[in-house]
Amino acid sequence: MSKAVDSKQPLVTATVMPVTSSADSSDAEGEFSPLALADDFTPLPAYKAAGTTETDFDGLLPAGNTLRLHEDLTNGCGGQLWPAGMTLARYMLRYHARSLAGKNILELGAGGGLVGLAVARGCDLGENHAPLCITDQVEMFSLMRHNIALNGLEGKVEAMLLNWGEPLPANIVAAPPDVILAADCVYFEPAFPLLQTTLADLLSLRPEAVIYFCFKKRRRADMQFLKQARRRFCVTEIDDDERPVWSRQGLFMFAITSKENGKAQGRKEGE
In this structure, which topology does domain 76-270 adopt according to CATH? Predict the structure, then answer.
């Protein structure tokens, strides 16, 4: 069930699939689903008027619960809900509702906070858990705080400023995240190195952490991000029951971990 409030238009066990193609492939797009859209056929995004959307993610939230998200593009495109955010939120609710207790969780490029708020609303984080952190630039800060309050999640979710490529905030360094969420963070090519620096900084704090990363391919350059990421991290493609649906929309979802952790896991399994 998903509906718009105030007459505004609203917007596994999973299998982890190794990415088998070479990181040096000259055709980055050929590594992925043949259903991925070519640049010339990718539709332009639809921008919406400010309003509030309410959803239960088609019943994935506990009975009687919904999530309300205010959307406002005044301060940037992060103020709108995007398909990658909905896809990642549904994946976390479907497959990780009972596996996050006691984990420190952080969302990067949160915009209005959809994914982090969905996890806080629908996943068991355990009693007296540390606040889940949703982060973005200053332009999104007031919207993140508004959506936290809109859902009564003060004390359970905290909005925080985090600029990619800059030193991590002291409170993140003091309590490194176990789980990092990132949806539709691949949209501006000059920011790719900054985002990868932040991902590397977070994984250096806790090498066993995992990043759940979902994005929609809109340009050829978007796939270059993954070529670069595979040189620095272990990147595995995630599959779930809804993959046939979201792959037709040009969406991709990955688990990203440190290469150090991947090597350690390999040694452990070989003992």
Answer: Rossmann fold (3.40.50)
Q: Hey, is 2 helix, strand or coil?
A: strand
User: Domain coordinates of the chain in residue numbers?
Assistant: 76-270
Asked whether the beta carbons of 129 and 101 are under 8 A apart, the reply is yes
Q: Which helix (H) or strand (E) holds 21?
A: none
Q: How much is the pTM?
A: 0.80
How buried is 10 (Cβ within 10 angstroms: 0-12 exposed, 13-18 middle, 19+ buried)? middle
Q: Please give the C-alpha separations between residue 187 and each of 72, 240, 248, in angstroms, as whole numbers.
A: 18, 24, 19
Find the mean pLDDT for residues 209-225: 87
Confidence class of residue 231 from pLDDT cuts 50, 70 and 90? very high
What pLDDT digit, counting tens, does each position of 120-134 carry?
Answer: 999 999 988 899 999
> Taking the C-alpha atoms of 83, 86, 90 and 91 in order, what is their torsion angle to the nearest 10 degrees?
60
Q: Let me know: does 116 contact 133? Beta carbons within 8 Å.
A: yes
Q: Is residue 77 very low, low, confident or very high in pLDDT (cuts 50, 70, 90)?
A: low
Confidence of residue 263 (pLDDT cuts 50, 70, 90): low
Which token pair is 16? Answer: 């982890």
Instruction: List CB contacts of 52: < 8 A, sequence separation 6 or more.
Output: 4, 5, 6, 8, 68, 69, 70, 71, 150
CA-CA-CA-CA dihedral for 84, 164, 237, 231, to nearest 10: 150
SS3 per residue for 148-175: HHHCCCECCEEEEECCCCCCCCHHHHHC
